[in-house]
């Protein structure tokens, strides 16, 4: 700690190790898509990410309990979390932008509409529609049907909306010093997150086995799995973070007026919930 009281963290190896772990998992995902045989690499990368998160959380918690953080450090954490969520907003904005571009521009052009409707000469028999169940190139596999938004997707929407409510109740309970109520509602939030992950797994199984919706099933399949898949990864990460928060609450961590780690996990979870509402509307309903 400097003479001004501002804590300067020591050199940490976790950022570079975290980057390497993410790169390893993404390399595995790329190899899986291209070669179809990189499951082990993906698993090693995912376990490495979890390990880095675990040890990094341990160090930050230890520094906090040693009293090394002051109000300036608290502001740094808040700004850091704010910019992180902003980067996540841009991340999903790119994927939503790709979906809107395909639906609003590319498909109508291939159907003969707009200034670039000459593209229709490539496949004169193509019918511009969304969901695209009949890709213009017949060599591309097509989905057999799409999901009804009022079945599993609606259940998952209700689960995530409810989880935001339970997490808010838990947060308010922590601020009033009611730790047992905080623990119980937080445990309920974790359970709802796990249920969401399980149901999305069931949906993916149904997509591949019965609906013909795969990553190879044209632009609909690729946009569907990119958007819902990356969101699912965020739900898994958010659930792991909430499990850490639950363990800390049960061990008596956090004060009524000082618990930014808990608050940051709430920010992240609410962000994930809002993204899902956009997915539910623009991927499943509209």
TrEMBL record:
Gene Ontology MF terms in the entry: cytochrome-c oxidase activity
Main location group: membrane
Listed InterPro entries: Cyt_c/ubiquinol_Oxase_su3 (IPR024791), Cyt_c_oxase_su3_dom (IPR033945), Cyt_c_oxidase-like_su3 (IPR000298), Cyt_c_oxidase_su3-like_sf (IPR035973), Cyt_c_oxidase_su3_a-hlx (IPR013833)
Keywords associated with the record: Membrane, Translocase, Transmembrane, Transmembrane helix
Enzyme Commission number, as recorded: 7.1.1.9
GO CC, alphabetical: plasma membrane
Gene3D superfamilies registered for this protein in UniProt: 1.10.287.70, Cytochrome c oxidase, subunit III, four-helix bundle (1.20.120.80)
Enzyme superclass (EC): translocase
GO terms under biological process: aerobic electron transport chain
Residue ranges occupied by any Heme-copper oxidase subunit III family profile domain in the UniProt entry: 2-286
PROSITE patterns reported for this sequence: COX3
Localization of this protein: Cell membrane; Membrane
Topological category with respect to the lipid bilayer: Multi-pass membrane protein
Translocase recorded as keyword: yes
Family statement drawn from the similarity comment of this UniProt entry: Belongs to the cytochrome c oxidase subunit 3 family.
Protein name stated in the entry: cytochrome-c oxidase
Organism: Vreelandella arcis
Phylogenetic lineage: Bacteria, Pseudomonadati, Pseudomonadota, Gammaproteobacteria, Oceanospirillales
């Amino acid at each position: 700690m400097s003479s001004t009281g501002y804590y300067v963290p020591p050199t940490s190896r976790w950022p570079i190790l975290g980057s390497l772990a993410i790169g390893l998992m993404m390399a595995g995902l790329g190899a899986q898509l291209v070669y179809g045989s990189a499951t082990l690499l993906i698993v090693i990368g995912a376990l490495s990410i979890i390990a880095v998160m675990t040890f990094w959380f341990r160090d930050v918690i230890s520094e906090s309990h040693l009293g090394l953080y002051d109000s300036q450090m608290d502001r740094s954490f808040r700004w850091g979390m704010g910019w992180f969520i902003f980067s996540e907003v841009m991340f999903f904005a790119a994927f939503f932008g790709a979906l809107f571009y395909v639906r609003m521009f590319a498909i109508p052009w291939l159907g003969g509409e707009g200034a670039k409707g000459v593209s229709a000469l490539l496949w004169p028999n193509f019918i511009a529609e969304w969901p695209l169940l009949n890709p213009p190139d017949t060599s591309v596999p097509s989905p057999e049907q799409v999901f009804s938004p009022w079945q599993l997707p609606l259940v998952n929407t209700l689960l995530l909306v409810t989880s935001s409510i339970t997490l808010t109740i838990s947060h308010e309970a922590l601020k009033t010093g009611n730790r047992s109520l905080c623990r119980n509602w937080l445990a309920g939030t974790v359970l709802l997150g796990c249920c969401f992950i399980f149901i999305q797994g069931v949906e993916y199984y149904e997509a591949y086995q019965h609906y013909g919706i795969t990553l190879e099933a044209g632009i609909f399949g690729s946009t569907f799995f990119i958007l819902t898949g990356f969101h699912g990864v965020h739900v898994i990460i958010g659930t792991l973070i909430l499990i850490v928060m639950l363990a800390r609450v049960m061990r008596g961590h956090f004060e009524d007026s000082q618990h930014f780690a808990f608050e940051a996990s709430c920010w992240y979870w609410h962000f994930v919930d809002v993204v899902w509402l956009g997915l539910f509307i623009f991927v499943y309903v509209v």
